[in-house]
């Protein structure tokens, strides 16, 4: 059984109880908080591996909680999945920029939530900043040589395209806001704007051919690389 500790933060008690039931059923240790203040207190005290964080909270809102957790060196590794309402694209984008690992939109099924939690925890465990190679099927990214191959055939990418692919593929399944991707390519171009990302992504997809569909557009937010 899973033994990871998860903190649920939501002021809707019925929803919180439902989430807790399904996570405990799946073997997780579950903590609960109903406001932002208690969320920060429990995160510092209990050190959960993952926080399910509603954005609309009393006392301290979810975005501020996310910001404080990710700014704390001792807590920054904590995975955060935002619980959001439909239409909260600006809040989702801001949360991702602050360091949130993923989001799930209400209403959601318990099965979907548990699957998302499992995926985020798996990505967190497998993350390695020192990774020299990323291999997915026939796609290989050599971070040391700045080379990309598909079925051992080299793919010619610009420096900007390589940086974008590296950023997305290094954390498959994670959604990156356009601003985050702009930060990732800063230095490779003298001038970039928000929609420049879309142009580079289109070019990257064309070059990746059979792997083009691994780069998924998240409407109004940004992009992710499918696991």
Automatic annotation (TrEMBL):
GO terms for biological process: regulation of DNA-templated transcription. Residues 5-121 form the Response regulatory domain. One of its GO terms (molecular function) is transcription cis-regulatory region binding. The modification 4-aspartylphosphate is found at residue 54. Pfam families: Response_reg (PF00072), Trans_reg_C (PF00486). It comes from the Bacteria. This is Two-component response regulator. PROSITE patterns: OMPR_PHOB, RESPONSE_REGULATORY. Residues 131-227 form the OmpR/PhoB-type domain. Residues 131-227 bind DNA. The keyword Glycoprotein does not apply. GO terms for cellular component: cytosol; protein-DNA complex. Keywords: DNA-binding, Phosphoprotein, Transcription, Transcription regulation, Two-component regulatory system. It comes from Candidatus Brocadia fulgida.
């Amino acid at each position: 059984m899973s033994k990871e500790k998860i903190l649920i933060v939501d002021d809707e008690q019925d929803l919180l109880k439902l989430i807790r039931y399904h996570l405990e059923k799946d073997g997780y240790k579950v903590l609960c908080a109903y406001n932002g203040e208690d969320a920060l207190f429990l995160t510092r005290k209990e050190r959960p591996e993952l926080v399910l964080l509603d954005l609309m909270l009393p006392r301290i809102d979810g975005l501020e909680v996310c910001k404080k957790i990710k700014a704390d060196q001792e807590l920054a590794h904590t995975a955060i999945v935002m619980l959001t309402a439909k239409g909260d694209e600006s809040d989702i984008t801001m949360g991702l920029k602050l360091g949130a690992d993923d989001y799930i939109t209400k209403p959601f099924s318990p099965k979907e939530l548990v699957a998302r939690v499992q995926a985020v925890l798996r990505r967190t465990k497998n993350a390695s900043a020192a990774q020299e190679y990323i291999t997915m099927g026939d796609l290989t990214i050599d971070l040391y040589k700045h080379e990309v191959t598909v079925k051992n055939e080299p793919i010619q990418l610009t420096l900007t395209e390589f940086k974008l692919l590296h950023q997305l593929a290094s954390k498959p399944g994670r959604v990156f806001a356009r601003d985050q991707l702009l930060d990732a390519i800063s230095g490779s171009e003298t001038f970039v704007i928000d929609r420049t990302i879309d142009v580079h992504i289109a070019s990257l997809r064309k070059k990746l051919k059979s792997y083009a569909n691994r780069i998924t557009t998240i409407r109004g937010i940004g992009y992710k690389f499918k696991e």
